[in-house]
Amino acid sequence: MKKTKGILAIVLHAHLPYIRHPDKERVLEELWLYEAITETYLPLLSMFERFDQENVPCRITMSITPTLGSMFLDPLLQARYVGHLQMMLDLSSKELERTRNQPEFHSTALMYRNMFKTSLALFEKKYKRNLLRAFAEFQNKGLIEIIASCATHGYLPLMDQEKAIDAQVSVGAAWYRKHFHRNPEGFWLPECGYSPFVEESLHKQGIKYVILDTHGVLHSIPKPRYATFAPVLSQAGIAFFGRDVESSKQVWSSTEGYPGDHSYRDFYRDIGYDLDYDYVSPYFYSEQRGHTGIKYYSISGQDVEKRPYCGVEAKRKAAEHAGNFMFNRQKQVEYISQFMDREPIIIAPYDAELFGHWWFEGPQWLEFLVRKIAFDQTTIKLGTPGEYLKRYPVNQVVSPSPSSWGNNGYSEVWLDDCNDWIYRHLSRIAADMSELATIQISPEIEGQQLIFRALNQAAREVLLAQSSDWAFIMKADTFVGYASERTKTHVQHFRRLQHEILTNSVDENYLSYLENRNNIFPDLDYRVFRQHKAETIAHII
Amino acid sequence: MNCLTQFQLPPFVNKYERSYLVCLVKNINWIYVFWEITTEKIEDAWRQVDYDPNAHKILRVLKGEGSKQQIISETPIESNLGSRYLYLSESGQRYQMELVLVGCNRTVVLLSSNFIVTPFGTFSGEEDEQWASIDQLYESYSRQLGGTSPLRWNISSPLAWQNFQPQQLELIVDAELILYGRITPGATVYVQGEAIPTRRDGSFTLKYSLPEGCSIFPVKAKSFDGSLTKTTVPVITRETY
């Protein structure tokens, strides 16, 4: 077999903030998870299943954040997802009937009916509601490499407290160890947010590599010899892989990217907005009109009447675009490899939800791409950053530049006039949590159990307040009320717990309520926020 | 079922009655600074400047660190609780902020912020290349942090340097304890009840001060799924004669 000249590393970042409201029946924001499971995660698992059965060589890197993974495992959300699917089956059955005499829409209605039916069967029967285990099994089979991430997707460059960074990283790494039964080698920095202050925490968890946006590596000091086509190392012994500009643009760009092709399904034109309110409203998660997930039109183009969606045509386009993407990577590798003493690696990170949720045909495109790379050429192969490091452990040592993959490349998305008010509170509760963490408690001693639980819940509230999603939503001006409320209530819960802990007056009713409601990280130990005491432990290596 | 409205939450307030100064990097040239100074702290500072009527508060930007730190800008501020965006012309630098009360005869530093590093913003002109293996750097960084490896460890004395009188003979001796071991990678190890980080291969090393008398170090290992546990208890006695 001809030797390949370079490696393509596709990285899918799977994340959603922790949204779970046991005291409410239907919560609009919980729908984000249900849509993502149906449109992205089940299609991805089905794709991996086919690769496995047909022996298609596949190496894809995935980060599954602890918040998303914990929601995958939550019995309440699992049951609610089943309820959601049953509701969607009902709506899609009605749609089959409604479109019976509309041939231009009927086949699409049938597609949705099949999609919900298949999703229910996969979720209930095949995966027994446990999607995290399904992904873990594909990692064990060698199809994917799962990397760790921060506890609640905290944006590290905007954390001034060292222990806040440390807690986000160490809780994320511990969650990974617990669920994937191995030490994490790679780590997804939320929003690719890097500042040099994160390195010590990553180092302490034995992390080998992270991914930065292009300029994080390109602007390193000194200049990286191989640009983003090989990793660079920092003095802390961590490898930094830089996002490739070309492959990113072809998929991400709203103007030049594939997902904007006129044949693909239009995300925004949903029957939730088109059909009679009384007909669709029983399927809404709020009183306002919203998305149902059933959409009958293709993007069609600007200033033209929307055309009915044609699944066959869209699939043909996905195949064509996969071929085009592969061709461009081949040319890129052929050119770059002339200037390198090793195989170049092309790092192509994407939000996992781009595939299926935002870009409906994304999973098809990905499947075509993997198959084409495996069988239609010999220039490139799929690989992971972890494998690349094992093969090429010696790399250039630099200082990477602080950066993120947000708009304009730094922290402007998460630090702006509309969301800067949150940082005073996030900084204070992290500092106060570090102080609370100095409290010595033995949960085995009678009478101290309640305080121990309260301290752990206080730590949970701090972590949940730190999710980068809240600041992002405020900036995106979408669900601002929800994001502000989440930030404020986690801060207020922390404040109340702090007061009760310090005055030894923990209200068990309230604590139990919080433990049930914000139940992420059941094993969390508040001492993750503790500064190592010089007199006891001089240093932990 | 309980619901949130059943429980009273404290009001969401901006004031924490604590003194702090925090600095965050927005982009290459802009930083965001917020602060709070308690009444006690400001009153104490006024006392120190002898209630100088011309004394005023300024937010000072310092570049670099340690003895090389230099003041690059000063912005007057009024409020004891506030925030503002500041422009820094030089990218790729290490900065720190200070909030100071400046009197005619004396300047009192009220607060110092965290350190920040601003983005480099452009391609580096520096082309010197250093190449190394990831494990080599990892080990060396561990040592730099003060840690040691079970296989290659050097004990550094924790004693502070002292100037001895030339005509006297003095002797100071202390001792440290290095506790090290290895568990199945991925399992958790607890020392004295606290979970401790392990290396990629499952090994761990802890360095303790060792007081006179008997010190007990219960070490407990727990498998991934929590189904298996193993405990060992080294008891170390230090006696000095």
Overall geometry of chain B comes to: extended
**Helix and strand sequence of chain B:** EEHEEEEEEHEEEEEEEE
Whole-number mean pLDDT of chain B = 84
Helix fraction of chain A, binned, reads 40-55%
Residues in β-strands, percent of chain A: 5-15%
Number of helices of chain A: 19
Say how many strands of chain B there are.
16
Question: Roughly what is the average pLDDT of chain A, rounded to an integer?
Answer: 95
**SSE ordering of chain A:** EHEHHHHEHEHEHEEHHHHEHEHEHHHHHE
What does this structure look like?
The complex is a heterodimer of chains A (about 550) and B (about 240). Chain A is α/β, with parallel strands linked by helices. Helix content of chain A is about 45%, strand content about 10%. Chain A has helices at about 30-55, 65-75, 75-100, 105-125, 130-140, 160-180, 200-205, 215-220, 245-250, 270-275, 275-280, 310-335, 360-375, 385-390, 420-435, 450-465, 470-475, 480-500, 510-515; strands at about 5-15, 60-65, 145-150, 185-190, 210, 230-235, 240, 345-350, 380, 395, 540. In chain A, strands 1, 2, 3, 4, 5, 6, 7, 8, 9 and 10 form a ten-stranded mixed β-sheet that branches. Chain A is globular and about 70 Å long. Chain A starts with 5 loop residues before the first strand and ends with a strand. Residues about 535-540 of chain A have low confidence and may be disordered. Chain B has helices spanning about 40-50, 135-145; strands spanning about 20-25, 30-35, 55-65, 70-75, 80-85, 95-100, 105-115, 130-135, 175-180, 190, 195, 205-210, 215, 220, 230, 235-240. Chain B has a four-stranded antiparallel β-sheet, covered by helices on one side. Chain B has a four-stranded antiparallel β-sheet with strand order 11-10-14-15, with no helix packed on it. Chain B is extended. Chain B starts with 19 loop residues before the first strand and ends with a strand. At the A-B interface, helix 6, helix 7, strand 10, helix 15 and helix 18 of A face strand 1, strand 2, strand 7, strand 8 and helix 2 of B.
